[in-house]
Write a structure and sequence with these properties.
- Helix 4 packs antiparallel against helix 5 and helix 4 runs parallel beside helix 6.
- The protein has 2 domains: 71 residues, Tetracycline Repressor, domain 2; 124 residues, Tetracycline Repressor, domain 2 (Orthogonal Bundle), CATH 1.10.357.10.
- Helix content is 66%, strand content 0%.
- By secondary structure, it is an all-alpha fold.
């Protein structure tokens, strides 16, 4: 199995560098990515207390590979959470470049709904009081509030939505709509919320 170069530990997901700033070998980065993707899927179904063997089997790596990169379960939970936040934030400029502002906003909010479904699997750990998770709410806000804010600003500038919507309040509203376990219901509720953003807008239109 590939591993991190001697003396290194994993850095931020997808950076290609260790926490010490050294570059991670390509095969090690592939293993890390596979583990994070597997952990995301397993956590979403079984919660963060799922057996590590299940994650290893899904990722196609040995247990030693997981423990080498993520010595504590909390290390893995934090990495999965940060990877999902990063992916959701990174989707905002991509959608903005491909779609009209109101369509980009609607698509991103649906993408964020999918993120919330994953976060539900992490919720118990995130609220456990473990000091390892204390920085995560700030990480969430620092990355997702600007991402959503840019989409809201662009859509409001075209008159497609109201201009009095605070990004963080909207993130919270979507998260609250996603509290039921039924993902189809959550998506329907978010679609209704998107329609509500257009209420009273000068040029609101359907997406």
């Amino acid at each position: 199995m590939g591993e991190i170069e001697h003396g290194d530990t994993p850095g931020a997901p997808g950076t290609g560098r260790s926490a010490s700033g050294r570059r991670v070998r390509a095969d090690a980065q592939r293993n890390i990515t596979a583990v994070l993707d597997a952990a995301k899927a397993v956590f979403a179904v079984s919660g963060v207390d799922a057996p590590v063997r299940e994650i290893a089997a899904r990722a196609g790596v040995g247990l030693g590979t997981i423990y080498r990169h993520f010595p504590q379960r909390s290390d893995l939970v934090v990495a999965v959470f940060q990877q999902e936040v990063d992916a959701c934030a990174d989707a905002a400029p991509v959608l903005a470049a491909e779609y009209e502002p109101d369509a980009a906003l609607a698509r991103w909010l649906r993408r964020y709904t999918g993120f919330i479904a994953t976060k539900r699997g992490l919720a118990a750990a995130l609220h456990s009081g473990d000091p390892a998770f204390e920085p995560l709410p700030a990480y969430f806000q620092q990355h997702l509030v600007p991402a959503l804010g840019s989409l809201l600003e662009s859509a409001a500038a075209t008159g497609a939505i109201r201009a009095d919507i605070a990004p963080y309040e909207l993130l919270q509203a979507v998260a609250n709509l996603c509290l039921p376990a039924d993902s189809d219901h959550a998506q329907r509720m978010v679609d209704l919320l998107i329609d509500g953003l257009r209420y009273g807008a000068p040029g609101g239109r359907a997406t």
